[in-house]
UniProtKB/TrEMBL annotation:
PROSITE patterns the record matches: RT_POL
Organism: Daphnia magna
Residues covered by the Reverse transcriptase domain: 1-115
Name the UniProt record assigns to this protein: Reverse transcriptase domain-containing protein
A family per Pfam: RVT_1
Biological process according to GO: DNA biosynthetic process
InterPro entries, per the entry: DNA/RNA_pol_sf (IPR043502), RT_dom (IPR000477)
């Protein structure tokens, strides 16, 4: 029994089943997020030990709810991450799911994002560099076999297939551009693409390669996408760290036109 994968009615039937689970109430702050068959449970507290105990109570309640419907949690695929900017000892912080101990992990993948415990986005940028580079290599090899090595086609395929992979959700992690290391990592990835387009030597400067490739620097492209989403979304639905970066980077004339809307968001 179950919802067949790929079935037309499977999403609807699953939503009807999980709806009651998402409505469970607890005497402490808990937020449940469901996407397809993945369930994310979020608890918060000033003390990590108390937050972990609350999470254990939620896991027990969720496990009992699923068991009453002949379902179960997959402990192997369950990841525990403690988000904090402080250094917290993790030796005594863990949860149990079906008698399986789940110890804290430094990173977790969620809807295409790689979240680390310090929310620095370093691991996410590295993962995107790997996946985008792999996609660019595949695209360039197909291009050579079909049409020959053409700059215009390669630039078009980069902007249509590779760049969206890297800039996915960039309005969330655009704050990484505040550091020189983050901007350098992003430009080093673009340098590889520009060398493929221009067929230049390894010693060529990155800025020159970007100009010869007739491409916008990737860090500025990320800022452009994040800015357009900030100005198009309702107030209060944007990441504050990214909005602060945009306010510092954008020209004063542009922000003067949109200042009323942006300041309304920042004051919330």
């Amino acid at each position: 029994l179950g919802c067949p994968q790929g079935g037309v009615l499977s999403p609807l039937l699953w939503n009807l089943l999980v709806d009651d689970l998402l409505r469970l109430t607890f005497p402490f702050p808990v937020k449940m997020i469901a996407y397809a068959d993945d369930i994310t449970i979020i608890t918060s507290h000033k003390e990590a030990s108390i937050a972990t105990k609350n999470l254990q109570l939620v896991c027990d309640s969720v496990g009992a709810w699923l068991a009453s419907r002949k379902l179960f949690l997959n402990a192997v695929k369950t990841v525990l991450v403690i988000f904090s900017r402080k250094l917290i000892p993790w030796d005594n912080l863990y949860v149990f799911i079906d008698h399986t101990r789940i110890s804290p992990s430094h990173t977790a993948s969620f809807l295409g994002f790689v979240l680390d415990s310090r929310l620095k986005w370093k691991n996410h940028i590295e993962a995107k560099c790997v996946s985008a580079t792999r996609a660019m290599m595949a695209v360039s090899s197909c291009l050579r076999q079909s049409f020959g090595y053409d700059r215009k086609r390669l630039r078009f395929l980069y902007s249509s297939t590779v760049e969206p992979i890297f800039t996915y959700g960039c309005s969330v992690w655009a704050s990484v551009l505040r550091t020189k290391a983050g901007s350098k990592k992003i430009r080093s990835f673009q340098r590889l693409i520009c060398r493929m387009i221009t067929r230049s030597f390894k010693t060529a400067p990155t800025e020159s390669l970007i100009i010869l490739s007739n491409m916008l620097p990737l860090d500025l492209r990320i800022l452009e996408i994040a800015t357009s989403r900030l100005l198009s979304q309702p107030a209060g639905e944007f990441v504050k760290s990214s909005s602060k970066l945009i306010l510092k980077r954008l020209p004063h004339e542009l922000m003067h036109k949109k200042s009323e809307r942006v300041s309304t968001f920042l004051s919330t």
